[in-house]
Amino acid sequence: MGFGDLKAPSGLKVLNDFLSDRSYIEGYVPSQADVAVFEAISSLPTADLCHALRWYNHIKSYKDQKNSLPGVKKALGQYGPAGVADATSSSGPAAASKDDDDDDIDLFGSDDEEDSEAAKLKEQRLAEYAAKKSKKPALIAKSSILLDVKPWDDETDMAQLEECVRSIQMDGLVWGQSKLVPVGYGIKKLQIGCVVEDDKVGTDILEEHITAFEDYVQSMDVAAFNKI
């Protein structure tokens, strides 16, 4: 297992393909697996690697909470698709734990070990998550949302823009139909529908993820919002 060399375009391409149908490296919540892979990357994924870029920006938002994320960091060779070997040099947390290499780059800042309070918090979060998944509510509140996603200009690749938007995957989100709507001067906006579970996905988090594709997206607006 592995991603090849995560400091090279080839490794980032493997990561992008791996995340095409996943929100995280392991499981359904951010964990130390995401931290380990994030710290091994030396540069921001390019816009054409939309799945990797979406994941990178999301994990970066946990900068101040990295030690409290659940799980235990493992060697990079224990993550990723089968049949691909890890070839990343100075593999971030794995190298630091084995070789005590002070020169390893830590994109998060300090690399303090998880203390007892963080361990307790991790166990509490895992317990809460398991309890939440085991519940079967009688009614799940859902909403139908229509989004307007505007490009920068008439030269923006709208097919790539839509692919980036649809690459956003999370529990409680289902993408629907879409169309291009003229807005003037040869520019078209992407109008795309989705159905969300209200307690899991909101318009604020959708806007955060969509506008992260800043090479393609100028802005996002809610065109319609209806309870189901």
From TrEMBL:
Q: What domain of life? A: Eukaryota
Q: Which Gene3D superfamilies match?
A: 1.20.1050.130, 3.30.70.60
Domain called Elongation factor 1 beta central acidic region eukaryote: residue spans: 107-133
Q: Which InterPro entries match?
A: Arc1-like_N, eEF-1beta-like_sf, EF-1_beta_acid_region_euk, EF1B_bsu/dsu, EF1B_bsu/dsu_GNE, Glutathione-S-Trfase_C_sf, Transl_elong_EF1B/ribsomal_bS6, Transl_elong_EF1B_B/D_CS
List residues of the Translation elongation factor EF1B beta/delta subunit guanine nucleotide exchange domain.
142-228
Q: How does it assemble?
A: EF-1 is composed of 4 subunits: alpha, beta (alpha subunit of the eEF1B subcomplex), delta (beta subunit of the eEF1B subcomplex), and gamma (gamma subunit of the eEF1B subcomplex). Interacts with elongation factor EEF1A1.
- SMART domains attached to this UniProt entry: EF-1_beta_acid (SM01182), EF1_GNE (SM00888)
**Name under which the protein is recorded:** Elongation factor 1-beta
Spell out the Acidic residues composition-biased ranges. 99-116
- List the lineage, top down: Eukaryota, Metazoa, Chordata, Craniata, Vertebrata
Which PANTHER family did the record assign?
Answer: EF-HAND AND COILED-COIL DOMAIN-CONTAINING FAMILY MEMBER, ELONGATION FACTOR 1-BETA
Kindly list the GO molecular function terms attached to this UniProt entry.
guanyl-nucleotide exchange factor activity; translation elongation factor activity
The organism is Seriola lalandi dorsalis
* Record's keyword terms, sorted: Elongation factor, Protein biosynthesis
Q: Name one GO cellular component term.
A: eukaryotic translation elongation factor 1 complex
Record family assignment: Belongs to the EF-1-beta/EF-1-delta family.
* Region described as Disordered: spans on this chain: 83-116
Q: What does this protein do?
A: Catalytic subunit of the guanine nucleotide exchange factor (GEF) (eEF1B subcomplex) of the eukaryotic elongation factor 1 complex (eEF1). Stimulates the exchange of GDP for GTP on elongation factor 1A (eEF1A), probably by displacing GDP from the nucleotide binding pocket in eEF1A.
